[in-house]
Amino acid sequence: MTPTLKTTLLSNLFLLFCFIAIAQQTGWNKLNSELAKLSDDSLKVMAHYKVSTELYKSSPQEAKEIAEKGYQLAVENKMDELQLSFLNVIGVIESKLYHFDESIKMHFKVLRAREQKGDKQGAMLSLLNIGNVFNMSRDAKQALVYYEQAMVLAREIGDLRNEANIAVNIGNIRAQGALNGTNRSDVVNAIAYLLKTVDFCKRKAPEVDLYNCYILLGYLYLKNEDVKKSTYYTDLAIDIAEAGNFTYGICYARINRANIFVQQGQFDAAKKEVEIIKRNIEKSGLRDLFDEFSDDFTKIDKAIRENDRNIVLTDVDSAAVVAGEEKDLLRLKVREELREKYETEKKELENKNLLLENAAIERESLLFKILLGGAAAMLFMVILMLVLLQRKNGQLHDEKSKVEQARDEVKEQAEKIRLQHQELVQADRFRSRIFSVVSHDLRAPIANFQVLLSVSRLVDLPADDIKKTLIAIGHEVETASKMLDELLVWSSQQMTNESLSFRKLVVYDVVDQCKQLFTDRLRIKELSLLNEVNPAVVIEGDLKRFEFIIRNIISNAIKFSYLGKTITVYHQEFDDEVVIAIADEGAGMSVEKLQKLQNRDMQESFLGTFQEKGAGIGLMLCHEFANRMGWHIRMESKIGLGSVFYICIPK
């Protein structure tokens, strides 16, 4: 080995040891050094928050552990606002770790707390975070739902900066949909929205970075065959990206410029653009970008070789570039960290158990010596005590039996009284609710009709105004009519004690007949109702009540479903029961609301996704009819993800 090579090797080893020493300064080390300077508990909690927010991009797993520890300290010190801040950070870190469901749960928890406090700014940020998580998990439709809700709050509180950021996010989603699709009108609409967003940002929030919008406009105008405007926005994006040294932006903008040159037949210029892109990637050290743009390079190279101007426009979003290999490495790293942590804790637990076993052996040995020395003296006392205890035990057993019998009788009586009281409370609540519904839902259309008649006597109203008013009154009458139908069905059962008529029912046919009733509503909301029940499934029940239950649950599923979603009816067969399930992809329900519905508490009616109204008693009647037939209904739901209603029918 030459002296020069030896010196170089030693130098490299020294640098490697320095790097390892620096790497060992983990977030916990940094936190401990911060805590060593502090004595106040509130400042220690803030130190946890500071370190976790600084660390989450580079070491998300460690940042999560620090944030969770800080959250526990915030709970112990009753620091309510910091608790929400920690939960928000944990939600962001979960999305960084690709734990999208856990991230959404955290952000929803923060959202509910901020809504209860009336914190519109915080609620807006939580909705924005939820939209970002859905966007990362490739659910653009749900992302748009929460971005639009956040936009409403941002405008309400006058937060121009976040209104601009949200508008840029919505513009990205619309642009990607247009670029991936074939509908020319989508491209035109996406361009219009992005131009409006750019104008708003320039006037109201000039600090917002717009180069990504310019890149997307360049792609969209090229797809719309407007080369002049595509060139203008592409050049603008390149200037901004190069000024800020944004490698991703430079590459995406210049790829579009190469596409423009190809479509213009300027193949030499396109080749030069590709060489510039490659030099930028080499200079930045982000060599993974070669893989990212390999398809584009191949297409452009082929177009140059074959003199083909019809190159396919790339549709990759420059704001969401995460390589698949990076994801796999990140997940593997997290799994390895979890495995190492588990093995370490397992080894520590084994050592502790070994120490406990040795201590137990020593104690047993000592106890054995003590017992052996006193056994002779205690033997007589033990025998005497056993005789006395046996006699006393017999007396206690007799008394205990009498007490337990009396207690069971009292318990049974108390349970009957409780059930009677509960039934009376529910009946009183139901009656009050009926009065409230009748007084409002029946009075409203009549009052509106009276006003229309009074005005028409005094003034000659235009026919269009009369028609619009009558249509509005008709909607109210339709809701009231549905409510009266449900009340008449229930009151008929209560007053006449109508007997049940059990017979064999083909579930598929009943569901299919009910489906025909909702043809118009399904078409308006662009919903799909799938009847996946096996036509061979047969149950025994009362036809009228079974149809009522199916109609009401499907009606609710339509009411709370988002545009273009699917409602599925299917069955599950077990040894002791058949379950008919109705699942939707709608708004979902909170745990509190779900519990109230399961307990058959009567509630106010909630508006559907198209502002549909109801009386709020249909589901209660479904529970009552199911119970009369010996069935029961259970529910599952998640906010934003939909609900499933299970009709459980014993065999």
From TrEMBL:
Name of one Pfam family that matches: HATPase_c
Membrane spanning residue stretches: 366-389
Group of enzyme by EC: transferase
Alphabetically ordered keywords of this record: ATP-binding, Coiled coil, Kinase, Membrane, Nucleotide-binding, Phosphoprotein, Signal, Transferase, Transmembrane, Transmembrane helix, Two-component regulatory system
Stretch forming the signal peptide: 1-23
Gene3D superfamilies, per database record: 1.10.287.130, Histidine kinase-like ATPase, C-terminal domain, Tetratricopeptide repeat domain
Any coiled-coil regions, as ranges: 332-364, 389-427
Record protein name field: histidine kinase
Record organism: Sphingobacterium griseoflavum
